[in-house]
Structures are given as structure tokens and as C-alpha cells.
Amino acid sequence: ASFIGRGAINIEDLTYCEIEGRKRIMQTLDFYRNNVPGFEQAFLLEICPQIGVRQSRLITGEYLLTIDDINSQQIFTDNIATCPISIHSAENYQIPYRCLVPQGVENLLVAGRCISTDPQAQVITREIGPCMASGQAAGTAAALSLQKGIKPSQITREIQGLQETLIEQGVNLASLSRKE
Question: Structure pTM?
Fold first, then answer.
């Protein structure tokens, strides 16, 4: 179920979504039992323990990855992951390291669905693969910043070292064959 217009950080909205979501599940089950042959004895075995939030707050990073960047297959010198646009597409996009570095906050990196993107790009970057890749890059960058004695925001000066380490770890940093 989709609950557009409800806030993922508002407890009243989350409570509404939990209750309404369960009502909708039961209504759907009743519909199938009453209208679809073979489902007369259908029952629920299990449902998720809590509602899944797909989008809430997004940071503003040193770079904001946009849907235009993804669609145009923008190439970034600080690429930390080359990911498929979708499971149905042969086209890829890159995630720049700067999307993991929040503006105005030192010694913090973010990963996963809250990296610095516009809401349309977040629909693509919130998938499991990109989240895993940004997490691996953030962890590796944090370790590298400790080794070098620099802040995570300064890793952009050491980006080749980060990229080489990520490649050694098996991360895909392949170049893009851009659309013409």
C-alpha cells in the first residue's frame, strides 16, 4: 500500500499507516476469498512486523545526484559505485563519493537510501545493490581517513586510493558507455 502525503518521521502518520495498511490487507484477503475461485480457504500466514518506509529525509551532500545525472549517464571522477539503472536496463549510472559527504557536518558519512540525491534519483539509488555499494564505500572511506589522518570530506583528494581499494574488494567501478 502506498501512503502518499504521510510523513515517515511523524508518529501519528506512521501509526495511521500501520493500522490502515493492516485493514487494506484484510480487505484484499476478503476480496480474494469472495471473488477469486480457489481462494475460498485462503488465509494469512504472516505479514511484516512494521511498515516499510521507502523515502524520508535525504541529506544535502557535497553533490546532489539528480535523475538527470542518472538518465544522461553522467561520469564522475569520484565514482564509488557503477550500478544498473534497473533490473530491466542495460544502462548504468555512477554514484559520486561526494553524495556520501553531508554539507556542514564533519567526520560523518552517510550510506544507503539517505545519500544526497533528488527524490526522483532516490527511487533508483534506494535499491539493495546501490545501498550496499554506498555502505561499503563509506566504511572503506572511513578506514582510509583514519589511516591517512584526514577527515572523510578530504578523501576526495585521495579518491584514487579509495577507488583502488574498492576495486580490490570487488566493487564495480566500470566506466559508462554513454548514450549518444
Answer: 0.78
φ/ψ of residue 18, rounded to 5: -60, -50
Q: With contact defined as beta carbons under 8 Å apart, do 162 and 97 qualify?
A: yes
Which residues are registered as beta bridge partners of 9?
A: none
- Residues 65 and 72: their CA atoms lie apart, in Å, by 12
| Local structure of 83: helix, strand or coil | strand
Q: Which residues contact 73 (CB under 8 A, 6 or more apart)?
A: 91, 92, 93, 94, 176, 178, 179
Give 100-148 pLDDT, tens digit per residue.
999 999 999 999 989 999 999 999 999 999 999 999 999 999 999 999 9
Specify the amino acid at residue 165. Answer: T
Q: E-strand spans in 21-155?
A: 79-84, 92-96
